[in-house]
Amino acid sequence: MSNIVAPNRPPEAGAFFQRDRDWHPPAFTPGYKTSVLRSPRRALLSLNSTISEITGPVFGHDMLGELDDDMIVNFAKPGESAIGPRIMVYGRVLDERGVGVPGVLVEVWQANAGGRYRHKKESYLAPLDPNFGGCGRTISGDDGSYCFRTIQPGPYPWPNGPNDWRPAHIHFSVFGHGFGQRLITQMYFEGDPMIWKCPIVKTINDPQAIEQLTAALDMQATLPMDMRAYKFDIVLRGRRSTMFENRPEGN
Amino acid sequence: MAQKLDRLKESPSQTAGPYVHIGLTPNFADIGGVYPDDLGAAMVSDKTKGERITVTMRVIDGAGTPLKDALIEIWQADAAGLYNSPAERRGAADPHFTGWGRRATDMVSGECVFETIKPGRVPFNDGRLMAPHLTVWIVARGINIGLHTRMYFGDEEAANAEDPVLARIEHKVRVPTLIAQRSGDTYVFDIQLQGDEETVFFDI
Fold first, then answer.
1. What is the pLDDT at residue A11?
2. Which of A3, A20, A41, A52 is the mutation pick for testing B, counting most B CBs within 10 A?
3. Which pLDDT tens digit goes with each residue over A48-81?
4. Measured between alpha carbons, how far is A104 from A215 in angstroms, rounded to an integer?
5. Residue A178 near residue A53, CB atoms below 8 Å
6. What is the torsion angle, in degrees rounded to the nearest 10, for the CA atoms of residue B136, residue B140, residue B146 and residue B147?
7. Which of A21, A23, A224, B126 has the highest CB neighbour number within 10 Å of its CB?
């Protein structure tokens, strides 16, 4: 583990902003059937962040392998590559104050171009791509920016309703600088008509929140004759400044 | 007119889905050759200071069935009560202790096991010491936003009795849902998602 903080930014140690639970999906969403027995029913205990939540694990670039951010080749046989539309996904990890968050571990996973996961419990008919594992990771730079290469995942059916399909999506797991910022979400693709039919997407009540999870096609960042680019910014919880007796300048 | 605050909105959460292990513990999911090891697999080494303990956790749904596709992360202080984090201002934590562990629950038994150390006490915001605890975060298919809770230690009666967070729980009958019982060197912690014994979850 190494120091994640950019040289001109002291580590922050303030409490996190309160989470807007109307913006996040509620726990109990019967349209997404698995939530019925897995949703806490009692009120959460509200607590201002303590040091247990404002601190969190640190991940250094030294832990990354050379191909960790390239899902086109990180599971492929030498000289081969995953099958499907090649894409680049890039953006920034920001906090609610709009500040780039450096040193954030971003882990991603997804189905292959046919919509099939490499998992022993996966039962969809689509073929398994022998050159696609489906996982990647990277760490955000000093300005919070990140980028990885992959193939566009396919949509797939799932046993919720008799005819429910997931839109094409990439799962994102992000750490901030404190354990209270821990977040897992999904990225959807601009223009996909399946987004608005999906029971998991519909666990989110606010259409603007769904649009925040929808990556935009970026033709300027697209590499001609190679891969299209999608821009996806991730926003983590903001935090308050804290004045310390031994550091009166605060954050 | 005053200036605008211009806050962004936090990215809304989505379920980790049934295949969270592909992304976060790929070796556990039999996707070898991408990462040498799954992250969070080893919290301690031979040099780590503190009392070695084993923590066994399960996550149990509203029908009493352990989740076989859950992922649990824990975050804790070292034996001296310091966190291995740049935001820790009270001193340097044990460099041989990561403080962070990640485990998938077993696909048959629903259990997961953390090999770690007993944490020291850390202060609440007003300076009172909290009882030793693990910060616990749970994701799985059907959980729309990761659940935060804590695990306290059953053999710390005195510290638990004065813990300012446990004291915030109005319904005292629910306090035991956060306390793991010791059996030898092992603490057993069942997280109940629903029902009479529903675990206290936190909005932190």
1. 74
2. A52
3. 999 999 999 999 999 999 999 999 999 999 999 9
4. 19
5. yes
6. -50
7. A23
